Amino acid sequence: MCYKINIMNIALFDLDNTLIDGDSDYEWGNFLVENNFVDPDYYKRKNEAFFKQYREGTLCPKEFAKFSYEPLAKYNFEFLLNIRERDLGPKKFVKQLEDFVQSILEKFEIKSTTIEGSPGVYVESKKIASIGLRFSKGFSYHGISINVDMDLQPFQSINPCGYQGLEVTQIKDFYSNISLEKVKLVVQNQINKSFS
Fold first, then answer.
1. Do 91 and 64 share a structural domain?
2. Same domain, 148 and 178
3. 159, 89 in Cβ contact below 8 A?
4. Considering its fold, how many domains does the chain have in total?
5. Which residues contact 131 (CB under 8 A, 6 or more apart)?
């Protein structure tokens, strides 16, 4: 029996120390500490210890996963959404998230659009926000990434979201006096309107 083998090129891209200045898992822990989502002393100490183990090659992934998911269990109302109770399917939920991002951008007088089949939000055909979803047993574990004020240079070396030639943009390109604090306030105000 003969088998045909298809060979294809695969490109792997790690965000750590490229698009993100540092290690994303470690920086996530720092974000939780800085925003008082966790006990700062305990979490910072544990985060440093796990990061040291990671650099030394002795990290136990199971222990680290348990540690890093503890805050998600505590704040699951912000990170988990029961789509069964809301009668949402994946496509409808993506649309709701896109509308949410667009409502944020409108507050900064930025006109945005969506593209059928390419989740996310676009301004002048450039991607300004990405949406990542995972569905399991009727729950959505979701994330929204809005480009606010960052170095976009690394995006020129990759195909963002797997699309060759896709350009990215950020709020700062349209609203020069932007800050993360301003965006955070708008997000906090809009989230209840969009998901209540």
1. no
2. yes
3. no
4. 2
5. 94, 97, 98, 101, 119, 120, 142, 143, 144, 145
104 and 52 part of one domain: no
Statement: residue 11 has pLDDT above 60: no
Give per-residue pLDDT as tens, 149-166: 888 887 777 767 767 778
Could you tell me the pTM of the whole model? 0.57
Q: Are 36 and 116 members of one domain? A: no
**Which residues does 142 contact at the CB level (< 8 Å), separation at least 6?**
79, 81, 93, 97, 131, 132, 133, 134
56 with 116, same domain: the answer is no
d(CA 49, CA 54): 9
In a domain, 178, yes or no: yes
Query: Are residues 58 and 111 both part of a single domain?
Result: no
Lowest-pLDDT range of 26-30, 81-85, 167-171, 175-179: 81-85
60 tagged catalytic: no
Q: How far apart are CA 131 and CA 90, in angstroms?
A: 12
Active-site position among 161, 178, 186, 191: 161
**Rounded mean pLDDT of the chain?**
76
